[in-house]
Design a protein that fits this description.
With 88 residues, this protein is α+β, with helices and mostly antiparallel strands. The protein has helices at 5-18, 25-32, 37-46, 71-76, and strands spanning 52-57, 63-68.
């Protein structure tokens, strides 16, 4: 059975954020092939992942929402599974 497109997109976004990156709509289109970043982020939050949101201004002057994992969550990913921040 194949994964749904949204599951695949969410997994790509989670993997990208887990590397300490910040994601914006244009990045989401590039790495996950989705125009619906806010929807994907909402689904990721419902799965229990902590997300920080922040407005940013692009180089062209557009205001967009950016998303990232909190630093303390990223630090917990480096610990053994039993010592990580609980997300589920």
């Amino acid at each position: 059975m194949m994964k749904s497109d949204t599951t695949t997109q969410n997994n790509k976004i989670i993997a990208y954020l887990s590397k300490g990156n910040t994601i914006t709509p244009m990045v989401a289109l590039d790495i996950a092939g989705t125009f619906k970043l806010a929807t994907r982020i909402s689904e990721i939050i419902k799965k229990g992942y902590p997300i920080e949101k922040e407005w940013m201004i692009t180089s062209s002057g557009k205001k967009v929402m950016s998303y990232r994992f909190p630093q303390e969550y990223l630090e917990s990913l480096k610990k053994p599974v039993g010592q990580r921040i609980k997300t589920f």
